[in-house]
Write a structure and sequence with these properties.
Layout (H helix, E strand, L loop, with lengths): L7 H17 L4 H8 L3 H9 L2 H6 L1 H4 L10 H10 L5 H11 L8 H15 L23 E12 L5 E11 L5 E6 L5 H15 L5 E4 L6 E5 L2 E4 L1 H10 L2 E4 L9 H15 L7 H16 L11 H8 L18 E4 L5 E4 L2 E4 L11 E7 L2 E6 L5 E6 L7 E2 L12 H11 L4 H13 L4 H12 L4 H14 L4 H11 L12 H4 L2 H4 L7 H8 L1
């Protein structure tokens, strides 16, 4: 059942049942709280109650009104007239129609829109040209495999978070899976090591492997001509297998491994406590044997391990020995100056990289270059050429904070046009406090649009915005459009005085009237 169709008491009953179910499976109260995203005290209270006690409790009987319930009729009418409307459009229409709309987030509007759709059976229309699918015939034994990467957050026993990256490979015919975990983002060298671990696990290698266009494997692409990275290209040539790369942004073309990535996240890693990366890989191998490859596949209805006994005969031989790359990413502390220290030099990072004393980045050295990756996201944030000198501060100009220039001129233009309206002064001050990073952008837009309205219209808009706590230039101008009329702006043209020759501009000498008075008196 769709949760949006449930009333508040029914949703609480479902949550109570889930708490009981997870507790019976052996999860602790802390784990249940983390899994269901509810407070641990709530979990403890639910576990103390049986079904009758919960049904008669004030928690179950209490009913909360939705904050957007007063607008239910309008949202329903709008969706019935235009089922294709998105929640962001509904949000904009509500703000346009109701000046007293509560200050809610777009996520609240999305949830309420989904609730109205489920309550009244208003379905979103299908795409006009949906993608067509068909069942793909089974490929020959040992011919194809698919590879992808995944990442997720895990927790230590004490609640600290740690990000885990993993490599997944699946043989297309037997569906036999392999997964290898790492605490650092994957480089070309680490991805090669994971390939070799997979080949060792299978006891051979497939003839062709399907990949995403990942920078770990590809240096550049030109309409189907792929330039592999030097390290990965050398590995492919030595192991003699064919690489096949999917189109960009088309994960569905390698759906088997995409499902494996979701399977690893939701079946193996979910709610698992992290101890060490070595132990996680050991547990992963046991999980592969016990569950991923030991139970019937939901699509083929066959056990991957049993089908693999036939596919094993068709794999190419692998005689190598997996060797962990000597050069691995290292963790470096981010200084308050948004920089790291490396071999006696300081290398800059983008502004905002330092968030707290525990801020860290992963650092990878490739040739003469230093590559830095955000520890939270695993994305590359900076790179520098390694300096041979010592005691230097190497900075990327794009990492510097742009100076705040022209701010006072824009403020003066606004205040001058508004006749130094006190409401304008207060609104600008609050705008700067509310959106310091986008203050100049808001002022620039405001200055460009304000001359379309009379100062009196702006005064009324300032009053309403201050009352509603609305500090956004575009919303301010939209409000002006509703409460006033736009006025045309005359294009500035050259004055006649400016285009006349200098001789014509000369003025005759003037004599004071007192000079003539002395002759007539």
């Amino acid at each position: 059942m769709d949760t949006y169709e449930l009333t508040s008491p029914e949703r609480k009953l479902v949550m109570w049942c889930k708490c009981k179910e997870l507790f019976e499976k052996g999860l602790s109260k802390r784990q249940i709280s983390r899994e269901l995203c509810i407070d641990r005290k709530t979990v403890k209270r639910y576990l103390r109650m049986n079904r009758e006690e919960f049904g008669s409790s004030a928690v179950y009987q209490r009913h909360y009104r939705r904050i957007l319930d007063p607008y239910e009729s309008y949202v329903r009418t709008s969706l019935e007239a235009h089922p294709e409307l998105s929640s962001s459009q509904i949000y904009d229409w509500l703000r346009e129609r109701y000046s007293n709309l509560p200050n809610v987030s777009i996520k609240t509007v999305y949830n309420y829109t989904q609730y109205i759709r489920a309550k009244y059976g208003i379905l979103r229309p299908n795409l006009t040209n949906p993608r067509q699918y068909m069942v793909v015939e089974e490929t020959p034994y040992g011919e194809y495999a698919q590879v992808d990467f995944g990442e997720t957050w895990m927790h230590y026993e004490d609640g600290r978070r740690v990000k885990i990256y993993f490599f997944a490979m699946v043989l297309c015919r037997s569906r036999k899976k392999y997964v290898w975990f790492s605490k650092t983002p994957f480089t070309s060298e680490l991805a090669i090591y994971a390939h070799e671990k997979a080949f060792e696990y299978y006891g051979g290698k497939p003839l062709k492997i399907i990949y995403d266009q990942d920078k770990v494997f590809i240096h550049d692409e030109n309409f189907g001509d792929y330039i592999l990275t030097n390290v990965f290209g050398a590995f492919v040539n030595s192991e003699r297998f064919e690489t096949i790369f999917c189109h960009k942004s088309d994960p569905e073309s390698k759906g088997k491994v995409e499902n494996v990535v979701k399977y690893v996240k939701n079946n193996f890693l979910r709610c698992r406590t992290f101890v060490s990366i070595g132990q996680l890989n050991e547990e992963g191998v046991r999980w592969l044997s016990r569950t991923a490859n030991g139970l019937p596949h939901c699509g083929t209805r066959l056990v991957p391990d049993e089908v693999f006994e036939e596919e094993r005969k068709h794999l190419a031989a692998y005689n190598g020995v997996p060797k962990m790359p000597e050069r691995q990413m290292r963790e470096y502390k981010v200084h308050k100056t948004n920089a790291i220290s490396y071999c006696g030099n300081e290398y800059s990072l983008p502004s905002g990289s330092y968030r707290n004393p525990d801020s860290r980045v992963w650092v990878d050295i490739k040739g003469s270059c230093l590559y830095m990756y955000d520890k939270e996201t695993g994305k590359q944030v900076a790179h520098h050429v390694i300096s041979e000198e010592r005691g230097k501060y190497i900075v990327d100009p794009s990492h510097r904070i742009r100076p705040k220039v022209g701010m006072s001129n824009q403020e003066n233009d606004i205040l001058s046009y508004c006749n130094h309206d006190e409401l304008a002064i207060v609104w600008c001050k609050n705008l700067k406090a509310d959106k310091p990073r986008y203050y100049r952008d808001n002022l620039r837009y405001f200055v460009r649009e304000m001359r379309h309205f009379e100062p009196a219209t702006l005064h009324g808009a300032f009053d309403k915005c201050l009352e509603a706590g609305m500090y956004n230039a575009k919303d301010f101008i939209a409000l002006c459009d509703r409460i006033g009329k736009r006025i045309p702006i005359r294009e500035s043209s050259e004055l006649l005085h400016d285009i006349l020759p200098d001789v014509v501009k000369e003025s005759p000498e003037k004599t004071k009237i007192s000079t003539y008075n002395q002759y007539f008196l």
